[in-house]
Amino acid sequence: MQGAESFIFGIRWQDIVDILFNSFILYRLYILFKGTSTFRALALIAFLWFFQRIATAMGLVITSWAIQGFTAAGAIIVIVVFRNEIRSVFQAVNLKTVFWGTPQSQTTIPINVISESVFELAEKRIGALLVIAGRESIEEIIQNGINWMGLLSKEMLLSIFWKENPVHDGAAIVEGDRVTRVGVILPLSRREDLPSYYGTRHRAAVGMAEESDSLVILVSEERGEVLAAKRHHLEIIRNPRILEKRLHDHLRTHANTKAEQKQERKSLFFAATICLLFVTAVWFGIARSSNTLVSYDIPIEFLNNDPQMEVIETSVSTVKVHLSGSSFLVQSLRPGQIRVRTSISGAKVGKNEIPITLQDVALPPGILLNKIDPPQVEVLIGKPTLNLVPVQVDWAGKLPEELVLSSVKISPDAVVVSGRSSEVKNIGTIYTEKVELNKMRWSGKRKVNLILDKASLKLSDESKTVTIEYQIQKKETVKTE
What CATH number should be reported for the domain holding residue 371? Predict the structure, then answer.
């Protein structure tokens, strides 16, 4: 219970900010990349890291080393293989969307234009192949093609797939409200369960759907049919209304029901929770898994002592505190950040045993106290002895030859010193700090500090200074006969 309490109170506000900030970044990456191949690859790397930490904790040296190598290689592969997909995601959103909100699917696609155009092509028995891009990048899948970037319209689609057009046999790529590329060659499916009458255009549509999240719309030249392929599913579309629904489903522009909206909120909340737990686990693994032990000798400060009483003697002047914490925090720890202060308000004249507890040790957040040595200190309390001691100026150097110090007045010329009787009785004079004579040219007045040789001695007056008033005159010249 005490360990759990120490752990909870040992968490710094910097740790909370660190966890929340990185959880938010991870959650935003999930929002931006969910459903993409990049996200699945990153999730796999995260699981590899998790199992690597487990292997390390279990002492499986070779397994940990191997998984660590796979994780590093996987990170490089993600950057190299999915660079186009990563670039396309960030190109599709603005800076505000990166840090807030949910990226909207491309809702500017004129769905009715595509539907009308496709069924008009089917009616005229003109073959066509349309690829409606999804969130995944298709740059590594498609081949050749001509950059087009034309605004999507029925007339454009009809002209692209017109039989006399040189690019009519290839596929047209639709992104947003534009046809970005035409005459594109798609990968062919190797499935053996497809009907024998399916030609190259059919296999290209199925192959593209298998290797990406795109929706591929096919118009059969021989049969005048409209088909839609998504992932491993290929279906015949009977009328424009069904095609529009498939497009809406693909683009996620159809109005969600309340149940769907509620489910979406639950999904995002669950994702945010997982991100928070994952980052917390990472923080715990890095900041808490490898505790470092360290010891410091810290002076004891006594508080709340009675003005009429003083500490005459202590068994020890310092205690050794044994601390633990993460290597990051311990390496940045300095002895000045640690203080040991204990109250002696209830102490009586004579010997007292004062315990040093956890509450008496002030530590930076994140550092845990393991042991205090010694756990208690003997303190001798007594009433201070008072003694009126004269003050004398501690002169240093000498005046120039032509000057002489004619008189000195000290105010006050004696002060009351308190402390141990054995020490106070032996004091005959209290000296000031050194006063340089060689820097003095004229008469004047100045304040100087009093010097106490021992820390156990105190001045009864609050002021630790005296005022000296001195007269300096020129030497009288004596004429010799």
Answer: 2.170.120.30
- Which of the four pLDDT bands, split at 50, 70 and 90, describes residue 131? very high
Same domain as 243, residue 116: yes
Query: Residue 393, Cα to own-chain centre: how many angstroms?
Result: 59
**Model pLDDT for residues 18-75, shown as the tens digit of each residue:** 888 888 888 887 877 776 667 777 778 888 877 877 877 677 778 888 888 888 887 7
Q: Which residues contact 434 (CB under 8 A, 6 or more apart)?
A: 394, 395, 396
Same domain, 278 and 297: no
How many CB atoms neighbour CB 128 within 10 A?
22
Phi-psi region at 149: left, alpha or beta (left = phi > 0; alpha = psi -120 to 50) = left
Cα torsion angle, 168, 174, 177, 181, sign: negative
pLDDT tens digits, residue range 362-415? 888 767 788 899 888 988 887 777 888 888 888 888 888 888 888 889 888 888
Are 343 and 435 in a shared domain? no
- Do residues 150 and 126 share a domain? yes
